[in-house]
Specification:
The chain is of the alpha/beta class and 685 residues long. It has 25 helices and 18 strands. An eight-stranded parallel β-sheet has the order 3-11-10-9-8-6-5-4, sandwiched between helices. Helix 23 links the parallel strand 16 and strand 17.
């Protein structure tokens, strides 16, 4: 007889179900007497994060029952879309260098041209001796049709989208003129973002007549950009970024409606560019929340179902990127790109790991491009619909960010809209407050940047920057020779007829000539600009000061470890001290342990180091601090003495004995390193 088939029960049926109270108690037990609230912390958005989530945590979220493809599009489209566009910016200084790189990269996985311009080109001016230092820096110098001919040579732009982040009207005219000349139907975006430019640079021509004229003229291409990376790279939290994005987009809708455009046209021609930071789940929630809230805004203006769907692009942010240990940036951008993919973006730029120091080389471009391809083709993230759906944690975060961002957006509306709030400096002040918290948390190492404020690499050699200066004079001379070719076409330019700008470009007008002919001085507005920065910059300055000192003195600044007692007594604090001061570029002199404080003091004095750190246990310090410090200060009063630890009951006594500083888990790592550099003559800042 055949053996009867054995019936197996599902694995989880063998375990008793655990309630929330069971999980809560398990968490409490693991804390060994500390309160459960120790596991709750608050984000930069003011949202409390708990260690355990359940369905009840998102019951207030009215959109949680919606399906993919349904308003308000929290869960994206109803079916799998094509993979997001691989829109890598290539900030090479000249049109020829850009063309060489584009032809190479488009054959190896890139799917969109992301045209990043240098500052003069972005502002609609020609390269001149006045802006000499900005020509070809962090972007390509494009100033005339001949430059586009070179940049796009041998590329089929009928098949490749072109994306320009916040172009000037003159640059948009050049691009559309190039397309008309070559009978190419452009796709992508040549959009203007006057409020974004105002926030970023403190001065901009906020001319909605030109924006409306461009939107009416350009077919099949986006004309309005809402660049949120400006705020993200200034330190803004997720709630602020969404609120400012909604306020900016709403202001553009109203301005263009007043000039005869309908909501469906405006919304479908608007592209959002969002920066993605390091907090994976918060960034996913941010993108989902923005998609939902923008749909509600467009619906409130009467937009149809298609217009309610956001056109959402992402850039991995620069706020958390560092020149120190730069290869770690690959890991940071991978997490950020993953968040973008899960959050449902339409296109993305992943910053190459060396973007903080120089234009990317072939290797760093390849790595960044392959990050897209791995996420799309190996991880298959492009084949998922609403991949974050069902996570109670993500649903809760989306809910809380949505509610807070909508409230902030409503306040902006009550204050008169985005332009009024920028003029009142509200976003600038709100962003600066969050930025200051980020800076302080990095300084005292509540936030960690590997290779920057922790786990520094003392043997690291900095990346060599690119010298764009050599291209500047050539660009100045080349464009100077082209001015004057447009003749009467410049006199025909009208702010409300974009075709006149395109015709001037076709006749050979340069960016600067078109911008001057627009005569938009009357629409120039000035505000206090946002302060964009990278969190690692203060630590980069410390390390650079240490490198400069090494070059001057022939050896690095040194700190001697006075390890007293057994290995068990001093090792933990010696290791902590090494990591703490390598962040400041100091060389740590560690000769092992000493049995007596006088022997440690003698070795410290003989080492020639400018500072000594005493490492042992709190109990042992009462026996060793005074004799060690007395010996050191007697023979070298200028030598800095630091204690590893913070024995609260003895702080005043140790200070009186001559201890200059204390290092511990809550210490301000940046401030102590900076002060020590000043005292040892490493830096005079």
């Amino acid at each position: 007889m055949p053996k009867e088939k054995e019936t197996r029960r599902p694995l989880f049926s063998e375990f008793a179900p655990a309630s929330y109270d069971d999980w809560h108690q398990a968490a409490v037990d693991s804390l060994k007497g500390k309160p459960f609230e120790k596991l709750i912390h608050t984000t930069y958005d003011g949202i409390e994060l708990k260690p355990i989530y359940r369905p009840e945590d998102s019951t207030d979220f009215s959109a949680k029952e919606t399906l993919p493809g349904e308003f308000p599009y929290l869960r994206g489209t109803e079916s799998v879309r094509p993979p997001w566009q691989i829109a890598q910016a290539i900030p090479y200084p000249t049109p020829q260098a850009l063309n060489d790189a584009l032809r190479h990269d488009l054959e190896r996985g890139q799917t969109a041209i992301h045209l990043k311009l240098d500052a003069p080109s972005r502002h609609g001016t020609d390269p001149t001796s006045e802006n000499h230092a900005q020509i070809g820096v962090d972007g390509t110098s494009i100033a005339a049709m001949t430059d586009l001919e070179t940049a796009f040579a041998d590329l089929d732009l009928s098949e490749i989208p072109v994306l320009v982040d916040g172009a000037s009207p003159a640059m948009a005219a050049l691009l559309l003129a190039w397309a008309q000349k070559h009978t190419v139907k452009l796709s992508g975006s040549v959009g203007l973002d006057p409020l974004g430019s105002l926030a970023a640079h403190g001065e901009a021509n906020v001319d909605y007549d030109v924006l409306a004229a461009l939107t009416k003229h350009a077919e099949g291409v986006g004309t309005v950009v809402v660049d949120v990376t400006i705020y993200q790279n200034a330190g803004a939290n997720a709630v602020q970024q969404i609120a400012y994005a909604l306020a900016t987009g709403t202001e553009y809708i109203r301005a263009l409606q007043e000039r005869g455009l309908d909501i469906n046209t405006i919304a479908t021609k608007t592209r959002f560019i969002v920066g993605i930071g390091a907090n994976l789940f918060a960034e996913v929630a941010k993108l989902r929340a923005l998609r939902m809230l923008w749909a509600q805004v467009v619906a409130a203006f009467g937009g149809d179902a298609e217009a309610q769907k956001i056109n959402l692009y992402a850039h991995t942010g620069m706020l958390d990127k560092s020149e120190l240990d730069p290869y770690v940036n690959m890991l940071r951008t991978t997490v950020e790109a993953f968040a973008g993919a899960v959050g449902g973006i339409d296109g993305m730029h992943i910053a190459p790991f060396d973007a903080t120091a120089r234009p990317p080389d072939t290797f760093s471009r390849r790595i960044a491009r392959n990050q897209h391809l791995i996420l799309q083709q190996e991880a298959n993230l492009a084949r998922l619909v609403d991949p974050a759906g069902g996570s109670w944690y993500v649903e809760y975060l989306t809910q809380e960010i949505t509610k807070a961002a909508w409230a902030m957006f409503q306040q902006s509306e009550a204050d008169g809209g985005m332009l009024k709030t920028l003029q009142a400096e509200t976003p600038q002040k709100q962003t600066a407050e969050v930025a200051e918290k980020r800076i302080q948390n990095l300084a005292n190492r509540r936030d960690v940047m590997v290779g920057t404020n922790m786990y520094a690499n003392p043997t690291e050699k900095p990346l060599q920057p690119d010298d764009s200066e050599k291209h500047a004079q050539h660009r100045i001379d080349a464009i100077a020779q082209q001015r004057g070719a447009a003749g009467d076409a410049l006199a025909q330019i009208k702010r409300d007829d974009f075709n006149t700008l395109v015709q001037a470009a076709l006749y050979g007008a340069t960016l600067g000539e078109i911008t001057a002919a627009l005569n938009t001085e009357q629409s120039t507005i000035e505000v206090t600009p946002l302060c964009r920065f990278r969190l690692s910059q203060p630590f980069e300055a410390l390390r650079q000061a240490a490198r400069d000192y090494t070059e001057r003195e022939g050896r690095p600044p040194q700190i001697f470890l006075a390890n007293v007692g057994s290995l068990k007594q001093y090792k933990a604090r010696a290791d902590f001290t090494t990591g703490f001061f390598e962040v400041g570029g100091f060389e740590i002199v560690n000769e092992g342990g000493f049995e007596a404080p006088k022997a440690a003091a003698k070795a410290a004095l003989a080492s020639g180091a400018g500072a000594v750190v005493i490492c042992s246990t709190d109990d042992h310090y009462s026996e060793i601090v005074s004799p060690l410090v007395d010996r050191v200060k007697a023979e070298n009063p200028e030598m800095v003495v630091i204690l590893a630890g913070y024995p609260k009951n003895q702080i005043d006594a140790y200070k009186a004995a001559g201890v200059d500083a204390f290092i511990h888990l809550r210490a301000d790592c940046y401030a102590i390193n900076r002060e020590l550099q000043k005292r040892l003559g490493v830096s005079d800042e």
